[in-house]
Amino acid sequence: MAAAGSKSVLFVCLGNICRSPMAEAVFRKLVSDEGVSHQWTIDSAATATYKIGCPPDYQGQSCMTKHGISMNHIARQITNDDFLSCDYILCMDESNLRDLTCQCNQVQNSKAKIELLGSYDPQNHLIIEDPYRGSDEDFETVYQQCVRCCKSFLEKSS
């Protein structure tokens, strides 16, 4: 996934239509604003299969547009190759973490560091709750958490 001398991060949630594509888009904007896009390979994926091929949720897209961030991602499921090619796999909740850890344990030579994205939150909100079918405020909460966590992650991984 990552070119020589660069780092790679994969954001993961259940369906890859709300939280993880929002985190991916936020992180893309952060690294672009910092002028370090060339140092990163960034993607997102799902642990489940039922939204594969779908664009991001319309409420998430609306939230991101409000903040001047574009999203152009199509949902995909995480693959065993992701564990071999990604430096960091950052997920949204304990269920994602369990699923990823279980799958990673079946992949020889995995190099990915699997963590909760919320572990980087300076406000210590460990879990990024799924806003699917929630209110616009729920998506705004996810956006704000992603901004805080991604800024902190970028600082600590640079």
Summarize the structure.
The chain is an alpha/beta fold and 158 residues long. It is built from 5 helices and 4 strands. It is globular.
Structure explained in plain terms:
This protein has 158 residues and is α/β, with parallel strands linked by helices. Helix content is 40%, strand content 14%. The chain has five helices and four strands; from the N terminus they run E-H-E-H-H-E-H-E-H. The two termini are 18 Å apart. Strands 2-1-3-4 form a four-stranded parallel β-sheet, with helices on both faces.
Number of helices: 5
Most strands sheet:
4 strands, parallel
Structural class: alpha/beta
Query: How far is the first residue's CA from the last residue's CA?
Result: 18 Å
Helix content: 25-40%
What gyration radius follows from the Cα positions, in whole Å? 14 Å
Strand arrangement in the largest pleated sheet: 2-1-3-4
- What is the average per-residue confidence, as pLDDT, rounded to a whole number? 96
Q: Can you tell me the residue ranges where pLDDT is under 50 for at least 5 consecutive residues? A: none
Shape: globular
Number of strands: 4
Brief descriptors of the model:
158 residues, alpha/beta, single chain
